[in-house]
Design a protein that fits this description.
The chain has helices at about 15-30, 45-50, 90-100, 105-110, 130-135, 150-165, 185-190, 205-210, 215-220, 225-240, and strands spanning about 5, 35-40, 75, 80-85, 115-120, 140-145, 170-180, 200, 245-250, 250-255. With about 260 residues, it is of the alpha/beta class. It has a single domain (about 5-255), classed as 3-Layer(aba) Sandwich (Rossmann fold). It has an 8-stranded mixed sheet with strand order 3-4-2-5-1-6-7-8, sandwiched between helices. Strands 9-10 form a two-stranded antiparallel sheet. Helix 4 runs parallel beside helix 5 (about 130-135). The longest helix has 18 residues, at about 150-165. The chain binds adenosine-5'-diphosphate and magnesium ion. Adenosine-5'-diphosphate binds near residues 16 and 178.
Length: about 260
């Protein structure tokens, strides 16, 4: 059965979609059959994969008796499939709440036999959809801005998680996102959490939007490219998978 990785944060603009795309692409590159499911109405994922306008049917999945296969599209990358969001997903939250609090989990249960990894790009916020995500995910990857307030929101996520899932809560992997090592505060926060992977603030990450491609396709060896590979390794370790990325360097874990 495949594992569900939710890239989740309470805030927008913290690097969720960039991380979700790079994670899913890296997993697929490593040979894992991967589905990237965009459940954020902004639809950033399809855009970053160069598949804008690929699918206007995402909403259909949330009505009963629709075969998930109908809304899954292949991408330009081997082993990587996509369920794109579109604006019709803006009602997702209320749809899910009305239909059943376990709707998302049930949908994912139908998809996990066909995939090794399912990566969810989640909408920001703490609505009903968050609870569904907490129920459904095996691992929550939480990008955080290196700021004191962001660290507080992580505590809030942990508290919510404890409430929503009780004893079977998914593990949380915090990721310090958009780290600028020229800033003393950023360096301090990184030093205070040595076990958390970091992603540097880097223009190559922004260029994903221009190139409409995952970072590894055009800047795999950049500091940011290696940082995303490191996050991927940590995700696999957290899921108890084979640590196939085990070459330790001063940047952390990189592809062996
Ligand atoms: N590490 C980074 N360095 C520089 N810019 C980044 C980084 N991560 C994301 N961005 C940029 O910040 C903006 C928001 O990123 P995005 O991944 O869409 O966040 P979210 O999904 O949380 O809203 C985008 O323009 C993206 O290119
Ligand atoms: Mg996003």
């Amino acid at each position: 059965m495949g594992k569900v990785i939710a890239v989740y944060a309470m805030k927008g603009g913290v690097g969720k979609s960039s991380l979700a795309v790079n994670l899913a692409h890296g997993l697929a590159e490593s040979g894992k059959r991967t589905l990237l499911w965009d459940i954020d109405a902004q639809g950033a994922v399809a855009f970053l994969l160069g598949q804008n306008g690929a699918d206007a049917k995402a909403k259909k999945l949330f009505s009963r008796d629709v075969d998930p296969a109908d809304v899954i599209v292949p991408t330009n990358y081997p082993e990587l499939d996509l369920i794109a969001a579109d604006l019709s997903l803006r009602h997702l939250e209320s749809d899910l709440a009305v239909e059943s609090p376990k709707r998302l989990k049930k949908l994912l249960d139908r998809l996990t036999p066909d995939y090794d990894r399912i990566v969810l790009d989640c909408p920001p916020g703490l609505g009903g959809i968050s609870e569904q995500i907490f129920r459904a995910a095996d691992l929550l990857v939480v990008p955080l801005a290196p700021a004191p307030l962001a660290l507080r929101t992580l505590e809030q996520v942990e508290a919510l998680l404890a409430e929503a899932r009780g004893k079977k809560a998914p593990e949380i992997l915090p990721v310090l996102s958009m780290v600028d090592r020229r800033k003393a505060l950023h360096r301090e926060i990184v030093a205070a959490h040595p076990q958390w992977p970091t992603i540097p603030m880097a223009s190559v990450v922004e260029q994903m939007g221009l190139k409409q491609a995952p970072l590894a396709e055009f800047a795999a060896k950049s500091a940011a490219g290696r940082a995303f590979a490191n996050v991927l390794a940590r995700v696999e370790l957290a899921l108890g998978g084979t640590p196939w990325l085990t070459q330790a360097t001063e940047d952390g874990w990189v592809k062996g």
